[in-house]
Amino acid sequence: MAIVRKGEHTFKGNPLTLVGPRLEAGDAAPDFQLIDRSLATVGLKDTPGKVRILSVVPSLDTPVCDLQARRFNAEAGGFGDKVAVYTISRDTPFAQGRWCGAADAQNMTVLSDILDGSFGDAYGVHIAELGLLCRSVFVIDAEGTLRHAQYVPEFTDLPDYHAALTAVRGLL
Asked: What is the domain partition of the chain in residue ranges?
């Protein structure tokens, strides 16, 4: 039976339901199988030995998600190959590709949870009422342990970039 967390997330103050566990720093990061813009499968195991940032957004077609993705793309440029930065949504890979072209996003990888939503359920970011993912940020160390986990409480708010980036820098 799925874990259901009511009211931990809101949209303009209205409570929503998240499905899946609430992960915390110190937890083992669940592996995932998402698809990239070429429809290839990508998982956590594909970046062994690297620090990973998972920047999760409801949809790249919204202004707040666009800001979040652009910020992490800019930050990714400063980390070089030491950090793998992923932006994850349930947008189709084709829509993600259009966004990457328009945003000149070359420093990160966009991944889609469109096939089965298993990432959303494993990371506890699946919004039951909308079929979208809750805005969140996860930092995973080179060994696969979560070192930072933020579930942004309000759908329209931005994440705490400083906290996430501090966690990353502490791992380098």
From this structure: 4-171
Residue among 34, 54, 65, 108 flagged as catalytic: 65
Question: What DSSP state is assigned to residue 135?
Answer: P
Report residue 9 as tokens. 């997330």
Backbone phi and psi for residue 76, each to the nearest 5 degrees, phi listed first: -60, -35
Residue 83: predicted pLDDT = 95
**Per the structure block, which two tokens stand in for 17?**
């339901």
At position 68, the amino acid (one-letter code) is Q
Which parts of the chain are beta strand (E)? 4-11, 14-19, 34-35, 41-42, 51-56, 83-89, 109-112, 126-127, 132-133, 136-140, 146-151
Is 134 a catalytic site residue?
no
Q: Is 48 exposed, middle or buried (0-12, 13-18, 19+ CB in 10 A)?
A: exposed
pLDDT tens-digit map of 98-132: 989 899 899 999 999 999 999 999 999 999 999 99
CATH number of 4-171: 3.40.30.10
